[in-house]
Write a structure and sequence with these properties.
This protein is mainly alpha-helical. The chain has helices at 14-39, 64-75, 85-109, 119-176, 180-203, 212-215, and strands at 44-48, 54-58.
């Protein structure tokens, strides 16, 4: 019993379609190579996948360009040349029209070229100008507030500097107005303190009676003290 005829149509399942494409592509390239080698045929094969990936085969040592040129020479066909001049002309015309409209809008903003403007156009122009004026005024107010804040900060800094300068001048004037007598008293006290400091080493060489307990018995040769040879009684001098 022979095999049934398989209907050739697009495989709806994406995974099955990709698997079938990979298998049959490999088989087609293999058959193309065998045909080229066995029959010494010049073959050029181009395949694009669904995602646009290119697969190609050409008989060595020829290139795909050589195969295509030979095809064109043999058939007398030519590759279609797309003329871009029409598109370029349309693009230039569009740019000129937009430039003209911009120039006209600028002139109308200045108050010129209003004779050809319609009522609706003038109304729209008025709204745009009012909106622009409001933005300009808001920006001016913002800049003015910033300037006022900067001025206040500068005034505070100057006031602080003036206050510090006044304090310093007051202290300097008070220093200059100190009484001369007070300065002399301070000088005398300083001289007296210096004299006492100069006499202290000389006084420390002598010990007086009552200081023996503090000096000890080892300094008898250099210590001087007063002693009475007889005890004093009131009846002796009566």
């Amino acid at each position: 019993m022979g095999r049934g005829k398989i209907e050739v149509k697009r495989i709806e399942n994406k995974t099955s379609r990709q698997v079938t494409f990979s298998k049959r592509r490999a088989g087609l390239l293999k058959k193309t190579h065998e045909l080229s080698v066995l029959c010494d045929a010049q073959i050029g094969l181009i395949i694009f996948s669904t995602k646009g990936k290119l697969f190609e085969y050409t008989t060595q040592p020829h290139s795909m360009g050589e195969i295509i040129n030979k095809y064109l020479q043999t058939t007398g066909a030519s590759l279609p040349i797309h003329d871009h001049r029409v598109e370029q002309y349309d693009e230039i015309t569009k740019m000129k029209r937009e430039t003209l409209n911009l120039e006209l809008s600028l002139q109308r903003y200045k108050g010129d070229e209003l004779n050809s403007a319609q009522y609706d156009e003038l109304n729209e122009l008025e709204k745009q100008l009012e909106n622009s004026i409001n933005k300009i005024r808001a920006r001016k107010l913002e800049l003015l507030q910033q300037q006022m804040e900067n001025l206040k900060r500068t005034e505070k800094m100057l006031e602080k500097e003036n206050h510090d300068m006044c304090q310093w001048l007051m202290k300097y004037e008070m220093y200059k107005q100190q009484p001369v007598a007070m300065m002399e008293q301070q000088e005398e006290a300083a001289i007296t303190e210096l004299n006492l400091l100069g006499e202290q080493p000389l006084l420390s060489q002598f010990s007086f009676f009552g200081d023996q307990h503090q000096l000890g018995t080892t300094s008898n040769s250099s210590a001087y003290h007063l002693q009475t040879s007889h005890p004093f009684t009131p009846s002796t001098y009566d």
